[in-house]
Amino acid sequence: MNGHMGVRHGTALLVGAVLGPGMLVLPHLAAAAAGPASVLAWAGMLALSVPVALTFAALGARYPGGGGVAAVVGLAFGRHAAAVTGWWFYGAVPIGTVAGALVGGQYVEACLGVNATVAACLILAAAFAANAAGLRTSGGLQIGFVALLVALLATAVITAAPHADPASFTPFAPYGPAGVAGAAGVLMFAFVGWEAASHLSAEFADRRGLLRATVVTLAVIGVLYAGVSVTSVAVLGADMSAVPLTDMLQLGLGPAARPVTGVVAVLLTFGAVNTYIAGASRLGAALAADGALPRWFARGGAPGRTPYRSLGLVLVLSVPVLVAAVDLDVLMRATSACLAAVTSAGVAAAVRMLPRGRHRTVAVVGTGMSLLGLAFCGVYLLVPAVLGAVAIAALHVKPRRSYKIGL
Asked: How far apart are CA 85 and CA 89, in angstroms?
């Protein structure tokens, strides 16, 4: 085996793939949808994560070094399915990056007094400029961002917990089961990313290390999410503000926590937005090389080069999303629907590719639970449906002339 990654490094990367700055605002959005019963939606999504995470770990161990979910889906179901899956992720990025930037913007406005939209535009501009200049967030820096977010969440929970009030949980379910389902739909944003395990396996010195890293990550995510979901409601109530982490930290540490939280939010959201834009620009070039986008966009997709054309397309797609962005909840639900579709396709592919036995059984369970989670996205499933139709149409468009791609 040529890998060199240990369990600690692998755990850090997996935690980073699942845990993102969306956690800065999701407690508020989930509580707005379901009231205190949002804790049930958090618990349900954690239960869903177990078979999904273990399935991707098993898939990665059997097919190490895969090219991501779209490649796995392509092996299982063919070129068209791979293109649709790739488009689901590619189409989610302009929506998700704008949502992420607006999350940072909300915290900047609440903590530092700068208009949220202006702050979001500055975060997006900085991330696109960094990618155009060829700057990438290093693996070490990404791990640093993850550690910072974990520390922020843990500090908020620990310092605010003494102020919990059991009365905050009554009435428990003011919006009934439909509210819990609605909360689960937006929370899908916080429970995707497990597919990273499917292409980390080759980096492990011991393939069993991937399973251990996945189990440790599940424990870390479970503790953090349970702590944040319960404590935020217990301390702030279901009518919490749009910046619950700031309020929890200020309650536990005092007013000095507010400006610090604003700065940390900018760092976290910039790091996430920068990384997703970089990944999407390369995915766009790969889709173009496979014929799922016009081949003109494939230029610059080779390692070490910057795919300026694909990067420009991501920028063009992001502008109307930012202009039309009037509701962060809508953006996060649309992104969740796309990413939930990617996850569902990945575990369904695992059912076909894994041998008979406990791994396939876990994959079957994971597929069923993923499809249930996908159903919670409701009307927002129109977004991946439209993207899938575009992907199929793009595959059937014959280019008028062949392009010489400089890769």
From this structure: 7
Burial pattern 117-152, b for ≥16 Cβ within 10 A else e, equals eebbbbbbeebbebbeeeeebeeeebbbbbeebbeb
**How many residues does the structure list for the chain?**
407
In DSSP terms, which residues pair with 204 in a beta bridge?
5
Cα distance between residue 120 and residue 246, in whole Å = 18
Contact 205, 8 (CB under 8 A): no
Contacts of 196 (CB under 8 A, 6+ apart): 13, 14, 17, 18, 56
Element (H, E) at 208: helix 208-236
Residue 328 near residue 116 (C-beta atoms within 8 A): no
Angle 278-284-289 from CA coordinates, rounded to 5°? 130
- Range in 54-58, 193-197, 250-254, 374-378 with the lowest mean pLDDT: 193-197
Torsion sign (Cα): 245, 225, 146, 195: negative
DSSP annotation string for 230-269: HHHHHHH-TT--S-HHHHHHHHHH-TTHHHHHHHHHHHHH
The closest of 225, 218, 217, 221 to 8, measured between CA atoms, is: 217
- Cα angle 98-397-403, degrees, rounded to a multiple of 5: 85
d(Cα 76, Cα 69) in Å, to the nearest integer?
11
Task: Return the minimum-mean-pLDDT range out of 66-75, 79-88, 103-112, 185-194.
Answer: 66-75
Helix, strand and coil percent figures for the chain, each rounded to 5: 80, 0, 20
Give the separation between CA 91 and CA 93, rounded to whole angstroms.
6
Give pLDDT tens digits for 198-234. Answer: 656 666 666 677 888 889 999 999 999 999 999 999 9
For residue 133, the one-letter residue type is A
Lowest mean pLDDT among 12-16, 135-139, 229-233, 334-338: 135-139
Q: What is the DSSP code string of 105-120?
A: HHHHHHHH---HHHHH
CA distance 257 to 249: 6
Residue 204 has phi, psi (to 5 degrees) of -85, 135
pLDDT at 377: 93
